[in-house]
Amino acid sequence: MSPLTSYLLLLPSLALGILYIGGSVTAIALSLIGWRRTRRPIFAGAAWFFALSFVGPVAISLSGTLLSRTFMRIFDSQQLSILFHLNTFLLGTIVPAAGLVLLLLGARAEAAAATDGGGGE
Amino acid sequence: MTEVTVLSTTFNVVRALVQVGVPLLGFYVALKAPSRPSSPIWRSLTLFFGLTLAAAIGRQLMSLIGAPLLMQYMREAALPISQVGMILSAVSLPFMFLSLAAWIVLFLLVVRENPRKRESSRPILQYRDL
């Protein structure tokens, strides 16, 4: 494969990465603006969801090298493997799931506030 | 069975439960919300959690059943490893699109519910002022 072809093959991933980062930052900003202006819980839940579902995968890719560099001399390969499993599990599963739960809590709080307000939606 | 294998299996099982369980809970809550028919927020959230749930179930089915079957088929067909990777990525693409669709639904909800930019404080010239 020529260098030009490999660069061309990188372009879609680069475009996707830019879209992913840009979209997530825009979504977080919009949710925070909504929260600041209205104090409605749905915006807080959405901001948490967008932030955590963005941070988890990014942190996985950043922490891999950091973990292996830090713990390579301290742990053996088996312990390192366990550490990587734990890292992927926490950042790739628990963090995005926490975002979903917070979004749901925000929506429930919003519904409760609408009911208390008496007007509904 | 080594310690790592046991731990890895445990993580996989818990991961599958969390990845399917949380959207399922969200979908159930959104579906059962009393104000759902009249509330655009709950309708959007039902769609969001439904799409997330579909993506999670599809991914789990793919990793539990689809991927081993595909790997066996590709081993029999003696495909090169680069093609195997490409086919596995292509097969999991629809689930990525489902997650993306869910993300877009929530994004549109946030955009729609966001208050419009405040009107300019300058008074509008009325006909009677002329």
List keywords for this structure.
heterodimer; A: 121 residues; mainly alpha; 89% helix; B: 130 residues; 3 helices; 77% helix; 0% strand; elongated
Please specify the SSE layout and strand pairing.
The complex is a heterodimer of chains A (121) and B (130).
Chain A: H1 3-38, H2 41-71, H3 77-117
Chain B: H1 3-32, H2 40-76, H3 81-113
Helix pairs in contact in B: 1-2, 2-3
Question: What is the gist of this entry?
Answer:
The complex is a heterodimer of chains A (121) and B (130). With 121 residues, chain A is mainly α. Chain A has helices spanning 3-38, 41-71, 77-117.
Give an account of the 3D structure.
- The complex is a heterodimer of chains A (121) and B (130).
- Chain A has helices spanning 3-38, 41-71, 77-117.
- Chain A is mainly alpha-helical.
- In chain A, helix 1 crosses helix 2 (41-71) and helix 2 (41-71) packs antiparallel against helix 3.
- The longest helix of chain A has 41 residues, at 77-117.
- Chain B has 3 helices and no strands.
- Chain B has helices at 3-32, 40-76, 81-113.
- Chain B starts with a helix and ends in a 17-residue tail after the last helix.
- Classes of the chains: A mainly alpha (121), B mainly alpha (130).
- Chains A and B meet through helix 1, helix 2 and helix 3 of A and helix 1, helix 2 and helix 3 of B.
Rg over CA atoms of chain B: 24 Å
Distance between the termini of chain B: 89 Å
Oligomeric organization of the protein chains: heterodimer
Characterize the largest beta sheet of chain A: strand count, sense, and whether it forms a barrel: none
Q: What structural category do the secondary elements of chain A indicate?
A: mainly alpha
Distance between the termini of chain A: 58 Å
What ranges of chain A have pLDDT less than 50 throughout 5 or more consecutive residues?
none
Number of helices of chain B: 3
- From the spread of the alpha carbons, the general shape of chain A counts as flat
